[in-house]
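Exercise 7. Given the encoded structure of a 163-residue chain, write a plausible sequence.
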C-alpha cells in the first residue's frame, strides 16, 4: 500500500465503519510512516483497490509478536475471499519474525470471527465499549506462534494467491 492509496482507504473506512470513528487520512499516513508496520492493498483485475490491511510487528528478535491493526474490504467484494487473502498475507509477514499475533474484532462481526478462528485465532478476552463512539464491544483474539513448518506453508500459500 502506498500514500496514493490513502484516499481510497478513507472512502472504504467511511463505508465500512461509519459508527466507529473511521480512520482519517492522517491516521493512514501515520501508520504507513511507522517503520514497524506493514500495510498491503488488494486490487481487482482493473487495478482498483478493493481492500487493505495492516499489521504492527512488535517486540524484539527474542520476543516477537504482531498485532493486526485493520482489515477492510469493499462491501461489493465481501464473501469473495479478499479478506482471507489479506489476512494470510499479514500472517506471512508476522511469520517471518515469529511470535503470537493479536487482534481485536467486534463481538457482532461473526464472519470476521469465523475467518480468524479458521486461521488459528482464539478469543482470549473481552474489551467492553472498545469501539467509539458506538460503544461496541470487542474480542481480543490471539493466534499462537506457528511452528517453522507451519509458517513456511502459510507464507507460500499467501504468496501464491497474491501473485
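Solution.
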Amino acid at each position: 500500500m502506498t500514500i496514493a492509496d490513502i484516499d481510497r482507504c478513507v472512502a472504504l473506512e467511511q463505508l465500512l465503519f461509519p459508527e466507529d470513528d473511521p480512520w482519517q487520512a492522517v491516521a493512514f499516513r501515520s501508520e504507513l510512516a511507522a517503520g514497524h508496520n506493514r500495510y498491503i492493498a488488494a486490487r481487482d483485475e482493473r487495478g482498483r483497490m478493493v481492500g487493505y490491511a495492516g499489521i504492527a510487528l512488535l517486540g524484539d528478535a527474542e520476543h516477537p509478536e504482531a498485532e493486526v491493526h485493520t482489515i477492510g474490504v469493499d462491501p461489493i467484494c465481501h464473501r469473495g475471499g479478499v479478506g482471507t487473502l489479506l489476512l494470510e498475507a499479514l500472517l506471512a509477514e508476522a511469520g517471518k519474525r515469529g511470535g503470537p499475533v493479536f487482534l481485536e474484532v467486534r463481538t457482532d462481526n461473526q464472519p470476521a470471527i469465523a475467518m480468524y478462528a479458521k486461521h488459528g485465532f482464539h478469543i482470549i478476552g473481552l474489551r467492553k465499549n472498545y469501539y467509539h463512539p458506538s460503544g461496541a464491544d470487542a474480542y481480543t483474539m490471539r493466534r499462537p506462534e506457528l511452528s517453522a513448518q507451519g509458517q513456511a506453508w502459510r507464507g507460500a500459500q499467501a504468496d501464491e494467491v497474491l501473485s
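Remark. The longest helix spans residues 148-162. Students should compare their own answers with the one above.
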